[in-house]
Design a protein that fits this description.
The chain has 420 residues and is α/β, with parallel strands linked by helices. The chain folds into 2 domains: 7-63 and 373-414, Urease, subunit C, domain 1; 65-364, TIM Barrel (Alpha-Beta Barrel), CATH 3.20.20.140. 32% of the residues lie in helices and 21% in strands. It contains 13 helices and 17 strands. The protein has helices spanning 81-85, 89-105, 119-126, 175-187, 215-227, 239-248, 261-270, 279-289, 295-318, 338-345, 350-356, 359-364, 394-397; strands spanning 7-17, 22-24, 27-32, 35-41, 52-63, 65-70, 108-113, 134-137, 141-142, 192-196, 231-236, 252-255, 273-275, 321-322, 382-385, 404-407, 410-414. The strands form 3 sheets. Strands 1, 2, 3, 4, 5, 15, 16 and 17 form an 8-stranded mixed beta sheet that branches. A 6-stranded parallel beta sheet has the order 9-10-11-12-13-14. Strands 6-7-8 form a 3-stranded parallel beta sheet, covered by helices on one side. Helix 5 links the parallel strand 10 and strand 11. Helix 4 (175-187) packs parallel to helix 5 (215-227), helix 5 runs parallel beside helix 6 and helix 6 (239-248) packs parallel to helix 7 (261-270). Bound molecules: zinc ion (ZN).
Length: 420
């Protein structure tokens, strides 16, 4: 999206600041050239006479939400191998158009894509071919031979999640190969390197209970990424896989199904973040109920659900940094907000749930002050909901409750028929 050169004033009933958990009312947010130039109580913000106005009366506005774990090229309608066989690579990429639209309409204006999405999708959004969130990309998901992203089936066929030709190979073994693959990923546009340090659910030949990659392979990836200013995120479910990832220096643990006390202490020590993705197993179960999940995934998912919630609850209680992430692409894009309810259910208070998807996620993504806030200098990314989201998280959890979405000062969604 090109820079917005006009001045836009959003007039809302209230402005909620996640950092302080404070609301002011009535409120104005002033956006100039795509960035917030002032925000706060209406009588404190001087609005230039020629400013374009956005009427958000009846709404509480807050910063656009951030999802630290999505897969925009996966549709989120379940796994169906015969459908995969009939899907050309370019169609897999085009699925991102719909995913981006749904993500925006749910109020998520920034995402980290955890693999399978080529840099062309981000370029297309930046060039305004279609609306979509700001994005950081992992490009490809790396695993060892037989690991989580090795989609090699017993029949001999390999069904890559996204066979687009510009995505580097997902399978890598050994330190030198790892070093080269990380360089290839960065060349292909990766902001993050995604490693599978354990098995997972949506893969035919591995187990979530087993660690994958050697510690040396992980350390090599982390060091190589760091030389070019990138960090590493780890799909890590098994306890040993989580600890290898933390010892190896990864920044974020994705899923984290079997955290124990030692792993939690390591996370607290290094200031590392957990991205629990609690809605992902719910969606695996829902797809399975509709016959859209292969037997191996259904079985594995049923085995991990309870432990996953226990592990996340422990991390929340211990004060581990929890960055909001959904694995959308497993479930449908646009349902991201349901994760807020899952976190709340495990004991996180509502203000912290909202921080997890704003200020905390921004910090974890290295985007502090730019997203997840509406203070001066931030991108003019905001959402409007009809009420106080701290009292009622459902307002952010359901896309139909998100009446206004603005990105860079441009309105991408405005529900005109809303009740003020
Ligand atoms: Zn994922």
């Amino acid at each position: 999206m090109g820079p917005t050169t006009m001045t836009v004033a959003v007039f809302a009933d209230a402005l909620y600041d996640p950092a302080r958990a404070e609301t002011v009312r009535p409120a104005t947010v002033l956006v100039e050239d795509g960035r917030v130039s002032a925000s706060g109580r209406r009588d404190t913000v001087r609005v230039p006479a020629d400013a374009e106005t956005i009427d958000a009366e009846g709404l509480t506005v807050l910063p656009g939400l951030i999802d630290c774990h999505v897969h925009l090229c996966m549709r989120g309608t379940g796994l169906d191998h015969s459908e995969a066989l009939a899907t050309p690579p370019s169609l897999t990429v085009l699925q991102a158009v719909e995913s981006c639209r749904r993500t925006i309409e749910a109020g998520f204006t920034t995402v980290r894509d955890a693999g399978g999405t080529p840099a062309a999708v981000r370029l297309a959004v930046e060039r305004d071919y279609f609306p979509g969130p700001r994005m950081q990309l992992a490009i490809q998901i790396l695993s060892q031979t037989g690991g989580h992203s090795d989609q090699h089936f017993p029949c001999g066929a390999t069904l890559l999640w996204n066979p687009a030709p510009e995505l580097p190979e997902p399978v890598v073994d050994g330190n030198e190969a790892m070093r080269r693959r990380v360089r290839e990923l960065i060349r292909a546009g990766a902001d993050w390197i995604k490693l599978c340090t354990s098995g997972g659910v949506l893969s035919p030949g591995d187990s979530p209970h087993h660690a994958t990659f050697t510690l040396e392979e992980i350390q090599t990836a982390v060091a190589e990424a760091a030389t070019q200013g990138r960090s590493v995120m780890a799909h890590a479910q098994a306890n040993a896989g989580i600890k290898n990832a933390l010892r190896g220096g990864v920044a974020t643990i994705e899923h984290g199904i079997w955290l124990d006390e030692e792993a939690i202490a390591m996370m607290l020590d290094g200031g590392r973040a957990l991205v629990p993705t609690l809605v992902a197993p719910l969606w695996v179960g829902r797809h399975a109920a509709n016959g859209r999940m292969p037997e191996y995934a259904r079985t594995k998912s049923a085995l991990v659900g309870h432990d996953h919630r226990t592990s996340a609850r422990r991390a929340i209680e211990a004060g581990v940094t929890i960055a909001f992430g959904t694995d959308s692409g497993v479930g449908p894009h646009g349902t991201n907000g349901e994760e807020l309810l899952c976190l709340h259910e495990l004991g996180m208070d509502a203000a912290d749930c909202i921080r997890s998807a704003t200020t905390v996620a921004a910090r974890v993504l290295g985007h502090e002050g730019k997203v997840g806030t509406l203070t001066q200098g931030a991108y003019g990314d905001l959402v409007g909901v009809p009420g106080d989201p701290v009292r009622d998280l459902e307002l952010l959890a359901r896309p139909e409750n998100v009446h206004l979405v603005v990105k860079g000062g441009r309105v991408l969604k405005l529900n005109q028929g809303r009740k003020a």
